[in-house]
Amino acid sequence: MVLLVLLLVSVAAGGLTGCGQVGAQSAPSSPPSNPPPQGVWVNPGTVAFNNVSVGKNSTQNVTVTNSTAAGVSLTQATLAGTSFSLSGLAVPATLAPGASSTFSLTFSPAGVGTVTGTLKLTDSANTTPLSVTLSGTGMAPQIATTSSSLTLGNVTVGTNATQSFAISNFGNDTLHVSQIAASGTGFTVSSKPSLPLSLDANQAATVTIQFAPQSAGAASGNVTITSDASNGTSKTVSLSATGTATATPHLGINPTSVSFGSVTTGTSSSQTITISNSGSGTLNVTQQSVTGAGFSVTGLNLPLALSAGQNSTFNVVFAPASAGSVTGSLSLTSNDLSTPTASIALAGTGLAPATPSITLNPASLSFGSVTVGSNSTLNFTITNSGSATLNVSQISIAGTGFTLSMVPTLPLALAANQSATATVRFAPLTATAASGTVTVSSDASNGTTKTV
Q1: Are residues 207 and 239 in contact, defined by beta-carbon separation less than 8 angstroms?
Q2: Which residues face 253 on adjacent strands?
Q3: Contact of 269 with 260, CB cutoff 8 Å
Q4: 91, 144 contact by CB (below 8 A)
Q5: Which of 77, 170, 187, 351 could form a disulfide with 221 if both were Cys (CB 3.0 to 4.6 A apart)?
Q6: pLDDT digits (tens, 9 = 90+) for 25-83
Q7: What is the DSSP track for 228-262?
Q8: Would you say the pTM of this structure is higher than 0.70?
Q9: How far is residue 324's CA from residue 40's CA, in Å, rounded to a whole number?
Q10: Cα–Cα–Cα angle for 257, 260, 266, nearest 5°?
């Protein structure tokens, strides 16, 4: 905007006359050693205000001189260019021969950047207006942030998350930051430069915001930066985040107890266990412990991490070394807050290996007195008193007068607790005492040969 200030003052003898003038006026003086230009002229012809802060101003003086022998009329002053103003010169006016008059030009920048302009003076002595070239640069700090908003996402209650942004000065004068403050539940400024902060043109500084929710739910806030920036003394960055409930993993076990029943010593039996995470957050199984003779675990590699909804399987093995009932447990340690250590009950019975065993009943046969020429028979039984099949391969008899009158078909296989009957006949040929034996051959564990 061009400001024209017109003030009326008295006219000095031999000087500028007419409507009036404001400013200095001088009478003719002795010619200088280096005479100035002849005619009507202005000095200086170029006015450079250089750097002036926005909101402030700078003033410089210009002198118009009439070096002719006649009075000169100044008829018009035209000022072009924003932020420049003229004072101390009123037109129309007459400048006496050899006189000069001084007026002022002021630069009051409204914004950042270089401005140019001209002052043109129309007088009666020149066909072309006198010209003064004007220039000046408006100086001001201007603030910017790398982001107008920060989203810190989902953050678990009891933990925190951070994000950073930069404050920069894209103006051409020093930016002074006096305060950086965060608002909104859970939001704080965790890192910032020392205040007050001065940033030269094109300099930047980093600010870090922390969100530490105390409860679940959406949260919002702002970071406010207070400065002397020409584009706004208060700059805000909006903040948003969501607090999420604390992760609670839960260890599920299926089955929670295992019974192996009867297992023969020297062999083993295996059962599958499934563990799962039925909670939220990652379940970390870190340790196992097994008690009870003969129990062990295979296929469980620790540490084991299970996301919510995931599961894993492994085997529990029972390999009894001796006969008898055994109990024990498998304990699993995890980050399940409700049950840090979970147990699986284990039970099994060790059985001795199945073996056949032979029993002959009776263990002896007495025929008493038998008349020569006649005979007598007695029976005995072969019983498998063991737990595996008894295989009888041979039944033989020795002794004068003794024979086997009836035997089962050989080879003979008897299941556990089964029996078979054999008959011995005594037919004496002479009147004398006689004795003999029946021999039964088998794979019995209590003796492969038994006699009656």
Answers
A1: no
A2: 275
A3: yes
A4: no
A5: 187
A6: 434 434 444 445 678 999 999 999 999 988 899 999 999 999 999 999 999 999 999 99
A7: --TT-SEEEEEEEEEEEPPP---EEEESSEEEEEE
A8: no
A9: 132
A10: 140
